[in-house]
Backbone:
């Protein structure tokens, strides 16, 4: 399947299936993460060049925000059917082959991010139980790690939701057809 060439609304002949939970939540959180990351990085640069002192905390926060932004972006990509694929091959499959390939891709996506939920939860619990603190600020590390299983669960649910939409309306798999 070829990816849509623009992020605008799909052409009238391409089917659209509304999402139960709008993507605006993930999009707003990702935009906020980028904005905060930009602000703290800018503050660090200005402070470093004007006072010759680095704001050490900015690196810790920037890393956490980058992970959050990546997982939020993955969630949006899965829900919008913008995940990476080899369109050259998939577009040559018949409708049944495209359906199977899409469901396989979504199943693997849900499995991988589901594993991140489990392993991330175990890691968060260990960091909480052993009172591990962050190297730069001494903040409890589990406060940072908690976002991995939470946002991985969001990606998992988006993959499962897309699988349900594809099963209910297989015509959304037409070459080039996008979703919201």
Residues:
């Amino acid at each position: 399947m070829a990816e849509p060439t623009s992020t605008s609304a799909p052409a009238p002949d391409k089917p659209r299936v509304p999402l139960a939970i709008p993507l605006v939540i993930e999009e707003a959180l990702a935009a906020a993460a980028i904005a905060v990351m930009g602000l703290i990085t800018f503050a660090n640069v200005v402070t470093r060049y004007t006072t010759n002192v680095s704001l050490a905390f900015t690196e810790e926060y920037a890393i956490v925000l980058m992970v959050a932004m990546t997982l939020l972006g993955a969630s949006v990509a899965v829900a919008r059917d913008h995940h990476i694929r080899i369109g050259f091959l998939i577009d040559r499959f018949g409708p049944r082959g495209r359906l199977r390939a899409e469901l396989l891709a979504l199943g693997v996506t849900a499995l991988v991010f589901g594993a991140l939920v489990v392993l991330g939860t175990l890691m968060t619990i260990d960091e909480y139980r052993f009172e591990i603190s962050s190297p730069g600020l001494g903040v409890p590390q589990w406060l940072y790690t908690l976002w991995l299983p939470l946002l991985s669960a969001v990606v998992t649910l988006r993959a499962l939701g897309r699988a349900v939409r594809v099963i209910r309306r297989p015509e959304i798999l037409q070459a080039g057809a996008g979703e919201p």
Summary: Helices lie at 24-51, 57-79, 87-90, 95-129, 142-145, 147-168. Residues 95-129 form the longest helix (35 residues).
